[in-house]
């Protein structure tokens, strides 16, 4: 069995928010055999932090921007906390699936084509990102040699869309066949590499959900700087963010596998709403 934890940054909900131009979702595959040791390590680190800073969970934006309980903590110490997580990712052989949606492009497409079959089934950016993660897992694992099991995919809790995403993954639309081959003789059902459907967890109950929260936030900042005209909050901010992303980008599943180009309608839709600047 495989585990996969996913979280997003730049959530728009049911209405476009110009303050959140892109939505990034990141999923990580921790090694199941070493998971208990890893989880114990993170709990120990969390408890050390919590002795000094009263927090219920690790949230990338709050750490980086010095929000809430982190407001009285120096930026040097906050950066060290982020760097701890960056170094942990660097030292492990875990792959990261990163999707990024241009929120305006998505909502503009929805407004212009409300009866489009893709929009009828996938009405909001969050749902597209979650289904996209599941499709990538299916594509990666269905032809894997010595495939030892299916994947349990766990998302950070999301009250607005939990049931809709679970339904999408349990009973996916037929047009996802444009993304990943479906052979009824071999696969039996679409997304057969996923155990049951999407599951959800409170992020403060999961160390891995907190890891991907940090990566999703940092990568969102990186894309906003490189492709959406974001302005630095302080001199050198872009260099710092770029350096952190450069350290872990070799863990990313290549974007040409996540956003394949082909003359197929669903792939064309997927590429039409992807964030600018993905390389």
What does this protein look like?
This protein has helices at 35-52, 60-65, 75-91, 103-112, 117-121, 125-142, 162-170, 184-187, 207-227, 237-248, 255-258, 265-272; strands spanning 2-9, 22-28, 96-102, 151-156, 199-201. It is an alpha/beta fold and 279 residues long. It has a single domain, classed as 2-Layer Sandwich (Nucleotidyltransferase, domain 5), CATH 3.30.420. A five-stranded mixed β-sheet has the order 3-2-1-4-5, with helices on both faces. α6 (125-142) packs parallel to α7 (162-170). The protein is globular.
| Helix amount | 40-55%
Q: Please identify the top-level CATH class.
A: Alpha Beta
Spatial strand sequence of the major β-sheet: 3-2-1-4-5
CATH fold assignment? Nucleotidyltransferase, domain 5
Low-confidence stretches: none
Proper CATH architecture: 2-Layer Sandwich
Q: Quick check: average pLDDT?
A: 87
Count of domain modules: 1
- How far apart the termini lie comes to 30 Å
Main β-sheet: number of strands, strand sense, barrel status? 5 strands, mixed
């Amino acid at each position: 069995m495989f585990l996969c934890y996913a979280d997003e940054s730049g959530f728009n909900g049911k209405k476009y928010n110009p303050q959140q131009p892109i939505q990034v979702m990141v999923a990580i595959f921790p090694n199941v055999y070493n998971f208990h040791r890893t989880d114990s390590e993170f709990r120990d680190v969390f408890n050390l932090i919590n002795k000094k800073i009263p927090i219920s969970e690790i949230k990338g934006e709050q750490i980086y921007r010095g929000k809430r309980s982190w407001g009285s903590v120096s930026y040097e110490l906050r950066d060290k906390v982020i760097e701890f997580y960056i170094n942990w990712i660097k030292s492990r052989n875990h792959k990261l699936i990163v999707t990024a949606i241009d929120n305006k492009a998505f909502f503009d497409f929805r407004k212009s084509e409300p009866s489009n079959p893709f929009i009828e089934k996938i009405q909001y950016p969050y749902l597209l990102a979650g289904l996209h993660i599941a499709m990538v897992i299916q594509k990666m694992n269905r032809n894997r040699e010595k495939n030892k099991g299916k994947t349990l995919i766990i998302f950070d809790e999301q009250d607005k869309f939990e049931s809709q995403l679970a339904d999408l993954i349990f009973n996916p639309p037929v047009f996802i066949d444009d993304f990943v081959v479906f052979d009824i003789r071999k696969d039996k059902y679409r997304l057969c590499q996923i155990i049951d459907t999407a599951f959800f967890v409170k992020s403060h109950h999961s160390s891995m959900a907190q890891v991907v929260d940090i990566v999703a936030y940092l990568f969102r900042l990186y894309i906003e700087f490189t492709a959406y005209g974001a302005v630095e909050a302080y001199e050198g901010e872009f260099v710092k963010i770029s350096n952190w992303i450069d350290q872990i980008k070799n863990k990313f599943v290549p974007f040409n596998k996540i956003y394949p180009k082909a003359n197929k309608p669903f792939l064309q839709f997927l590429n039409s709403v992807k964030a600018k600047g993905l390389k």
